[in-house]
Amino acid sequence: MTATATTRAANWQTHFFSFWTGQAVSLFGTALVQFAIVWWLTTRTHSATVLATATLAGVLPGVILAPAAGVWVDRWNRRWIMILSDALVALASVVLIILFVLGAAQVWEIYIILFIRSAGNAFQYPAMQASTSLMVPEAQLSRVAGFNQTLQGAMNIVAPPVGALLLQTIPLQAILSIDVITALLGIAPLFFVHVPQPAPRAEAGTAGAAARPAFWPEMAAGLRYVLAWPGLLLLASMALLLNLIFSPTGALLPILVTKHFGGGALQLASLDSAEGIGLIAGGLLLGMWGGFRKRIYTSLMGVIGLSLGIGLLGLLPANLFWLAAGAMFMVAVMQVMANGPIMAVLQATVAPDMQGRVFSLVTALATAMVPLGLLLAGPLADAFGVQSWYGIACLGGLAIGVAGCFMPALVHLEDQAAARSVPAAAVGAPALAPGETS
């Protein structure tokens, strides 16, 4: 073990959890605002298409900016990327506050604000995930992934009912101001916590390690890195299809509550809280258990269970709303099992100085089909009923999860060495042919 690794193993809890606590506070404010904006759109329009478009506005930056953001995360100081990204999100909330104070807020303006907030997150998320792998010992990454899901679950439990209560007592602009305050509290620890930086790779043919290739060759190197890892490429393709069918179910949830179950803000909040409880339960389970020895089996099990939970949630009769909370709990637990192990595999396998690009590329591929799913799901739900998409998602997810168990490249993802063996100087090399390894 190197001196750097020894230091990280000895001191990682103090540095990481100071950073983690700041992000938890910021996440709480974001969850409050998200609930308030979604409910404002729901009560103002009662349209599945509007909610799908709003979700689309929040997804597009991840598709458009993620590949470039990954290069910048690997080139720039990750601490400042997270600080500036959080600041951009807070600034967007300030603009929205002003619009509501003036009584001038329109649906199209909400779309723009959601787009800007998502653009900030497109930089913050890969910077945070790439930093985690350098702050946390490899043996602890699966558990940290589980605890991250627990944090998300705790926010989902607390934020929706608090948001529903606040909507009945204070104006929306006051709720938005909470997001600004929590964003500042999330930024503050970043000025004091050490965020490690990976050593830059040298450009092919240069002697100094500090010499960096140009922007576009670095982006191309990240793409080749993914293409040279068959299991990762297959995983990204499956994630693309799963996001196509699963993402609209979250966007359509307010319409399912209001039009099918005949509920209101408190009913929607109760489902969000049930999801939060499920995320905590799943995160604690994954944190203590760690999953199967082959972590991909844990993820495929999660996909199958998630599909069944979505089918149950969407196809329940209108008089069985109490069962919907149980279905939401199941969806959340299985979501943790599907997502947590995959991030641990990537953090443990991908070279630290490539993680920003790889995480961003995988994220971009996984979210590239979300806009299409939202554009399909909104009008279809308005025309045939919101439950129709939940049935489609259930059947499609089951097919993908079961098929994945019989794909050797995916099952043996953790055994493949392609991602580790791409030469450091390959940034200037020609792209690998399909099926070729370095």
Describe the structure.
The chain has 17 helices and no strands. The protein is mainly α and 438 residues long. Helix 7 (215-227) crosses helix 13 and helix 10 (265-289) packs across helix 12. It starts with a helix and ends in a 17-residue tail after the last helix. Mean pLDDT is 77; it is low at 1-8, 203-211 and 417-438.
Structural class: mainly alpha
Query: Remind me, CATH topology?
Result: Growth Hormone, Chain: A
CATH class: Mainly Alpha
What is the helical fraction, as a range of percent? over 70%
Can you tell me the residue ranges where pLDDT is under 50 for at least 5 consecutive residues?
A: 1-8, 203-211, 417-438
Relevant CATH superfamily: MFS general substrate transporter like domains
What are the defining features of this structure?
single chain, 438 residues, mainly alpha, Growth Hormone, Chain: A, 17 helices, 77% helix, globular, disordered C terminus
Topology summary:
Blueprint (H helix, E strand, L loop, with lengths): L2 H43 L2 H28 L2 H24 L5 H29 L5 H27 L4 H16 L27 H13 L2 H22 L1 H8 L4 H25 L5 H21 L5 H29 L5 H13 L2 H15 L2 H18 L3 H4 L6 H4 L17
At a glance:
This protein has helices spanning 3-45, 48-75, 78-101, 107-135, 141-167, 172-187, 215-227, 230-251, 253-260, 265-289, 295-315, 321-349, 355-367, 370-384, 387-404, 408-411, 418-421. The protein is mainly alpha-helical and 438 residues long.
